[in-house]
Design goal:
globular; alpha+beta; 197 residues; Pathogenesis-related Protein p14a; 6 helices; two-stranded antiparallel sheet
């Protein structure tokens, strides 16, 4: 009986392991978030060392500075790319300008991609919304909040192979848009091999 039970447990274990599909296509390199597979193999991002986010946003509200976050974005993208073994890129002021214009529009209307074909050059675009609560476990001990937000600006895309394909592409130039609206933050990232049309 003992041998039959061990055999059955071994078979069940092997079958369960063999049927498990990992949703974690890309590793998340983050000092503040961790990732796991949730229900239906959907990837979830959670605060590191915590089971959930806090509802307290006072620290964030008192320390966030939109312009400072923007000033770190190129450096943060290049650090993000290094984590995946990809070389650095340059900022296109033109791509940043049109990304800044579009992120304002994005925060005021329907959350959808821009018609990037109208700009006259081949480019790619990622858009993302962030709730301030996703930074609710960040404290002064973690470092400069604005740098942390810039660093994690790209982490939200780790859940999507299409978005990661753009961030890790061989495009030479990138532009960024970032805006805070109430308790939400919005981001636009654009890339191209053309600096300006």
């Amino acid at each position: 009986m003992k041998k039959i039970l061990i055999t059955l447990l071994t078979l069940v274990s092997l079958m369960t392991y063999g049927q498990k599909i990992s949703c974690l296509e890309y590793t998340l390199y983050s000092d503040i978030w961790s990732q796991e597979c949730g229900d239906n193999e959907i990837q979830r991002i959670l605060p590191k060392n915590h089971k959930g986010f806090s509802l307290d946003t006072e620290y964030i509200e008192n320390n966030i500075d939109e312009r400072k976050v923007e000033s770190y974005l190129l450096e943060s993208l290049n650090s993000f790319r290094v984590d995946y073994g990809i070389g650095p890129v340059k900022e296109s002021k033109w791509l940043t300008k049109i990304s800044e214009v579009y992120v304002r529009k994005l925060s005021n209307s329907v959350f959808e991609h821009d018609n990037i074909g109208r700009y006259g050059i081949q480019m790619r675009e990622n858009i993302c919304g962030y709730m301030m609560l996703t930074f609710s476990r960040v404290t002064a001990k973690d470092g400069d909040l604005n740098k942390i937000i810039a660093d994690t600006y790209f982490d939200r895309y780790v859940c999507s192979s299409g978005h990661m394909g753009m961030l890790l592409s061989d495009d030479e130039y990138f532009g960024f848009g970032f805006i805070i609206k109430g308790y939400e933050m919005f981001g636009v990232v654009r890339s191209s091999n053309v600096k300006k049309p």
